[in-house]
Amino acid sequence: MAAPLGQRTVVVGAGPVGSLAALYAASRGDKVELYELRGDLRDPSTTPLNFTKSINLALSERGINAMRHASSPALLDAVFKETIPMYGRMIHGEKQGKLFDEAQLYDVHGRFQRAVDRGGLNKTLLDSLEEMPNVTLHFNHKLIGADFRRNLAWFSDHSSSSSSSSEKEVHFDFMIGADGAHSAVRYHLMKYARMAYSQEYIDTLWCEFQIPPSPTNTFKLPSNYLHIWPGGSFMFIAIPSLDKTFTSTLFLPASLFASLDAAPESLIPFFTKNFPGVVPDLISEPELLKQYKQNPHLPLISIKCSPHHFAASAVILGDAAHAMVPFYGQGMNAGLEDVRVLFDFLDAHPASDYADSPAAAREAALEAYSAQRTTDAAAINDLALRNYKEMSHDVVSPLYRLRKFVEEKLDQWVPALGWATQYSRVSFGNMRYSEVEKATQRQGKIISRVINLAVGGVVGLGLVSLLRRGPLWMARHGWNGAAMKLASVVMLPGALVRVMMGQGTLLFYPFPGRT
Ligand code: FAD
Question: What transmembrane ranges does the database entry give (predicted)?
């Protein structure tokens, strides 16, 4: 192991990412102190997160791989026991007055996502931490200040039963900030690191609902799917839970939420029109209205920053470093992957290579980590923003399905080509996110060339036809008529092929390989 024994590592935030980071540090022999703003979520008296974070999440390969490498053999088994496999999306809609659903498998190789209860996963991680003798957990402690040159942090301690709080000064060798999108560690780090920072609130808000089990205590929908009611600029989704409920989320532009808020009587007609089959089959009308009013309508933030560290003192991980919109189901997975990547870098920079200076080794490791991870975090942030269109709109488009079909068949039948859909690379592999983006662009270019060749073929046929019949058209229809014929024979079919193949443009490129 690279890190020296006994290094004092302070982790801020006991969410999934902070808890896993604490496990990694503890397994390397660090003296780990984990500070968490809230109470212990395993304690029934602790106020639950209650809709400040989605309850059910999709756990995929990157998150699983990070836990696989946590040196805690029982961890993955414990996590898997509490998950439900989701093999694909099930799209719901209505055609000619009839409800329909269509399953779209995620992967030709049968790989799947796992629906997991966020709180349950967090509890399992905390249980594993509790077994480590070199870890101390400090709940009800809020980071209120940090000096990253003197390696000091200040926490307000609300753990006593009285309403007052006391302040604690804590010394650390290394601080890991995993305190979420509104990170205090990041805020203080910015005073030391020359950090570029940007945040964006997208125009979509989300509100959670619960679909109860059927009266015979079974799932009301097939349980091994992520269910989607696509609506174009909005959507409704449902993810299964172990108690046979579904956690559903309504994603809607802020202005639409505002109009529904102003006229609550329009909520049921809105659902009936846009999400057929939900009301009253899955949720009763009064229950839908009640949950809509009771549950908050929350914003979605996307954060990018660089670097993620300062010198040898501190690094930020998870949402603290790269909160993203949830449309790729990668926020937590990427955060857990941060932990694995960070410790890979720390392990690859042993103090023995730096004149036995742990700080010098850590600084080099953090530098390398930040350089790699900021690029990858920005890539998945962008992919997540783009995936909203795929989930809410493209999944019902024949063109999307055609491209998915072609890409999957290439993956299945000619594996030597190394062809894979972007989705499977993101969700079922561990390729760097920025590499996934590049691979997708490469494949896109090839598809584009093939399309242009097809267009070229159509145009060629059109031209042959033009040469053969042009004089006849001129004679019959004059210049204008002949030009119209030309358009219909040459331009329109060419453009149509491009649009059909999902190129989404009416521009006409007659020359193969031009785009
Ligand atoms: P958090 O979970 O936010 O944990 C941060 C912790 O730090 C909290 O416990 C907080 O109390 C504590 N803290 C905050 N401030 C302080 C302080 N000053 N001092 C001490 N402690 C502090 N991700 C997926 O991978 N798959 C999905 O399917 C998915 N779906 C989602 C759906 C929705 C609607 C949303 C909103 C998000 C979704 N995500 C998903 C993202 C996922 O929820 C987050 O990426 C993940 O929870 C981030 O974990 P974290 O540990 O970095 O931060």
Answer: 446-467, 488-511
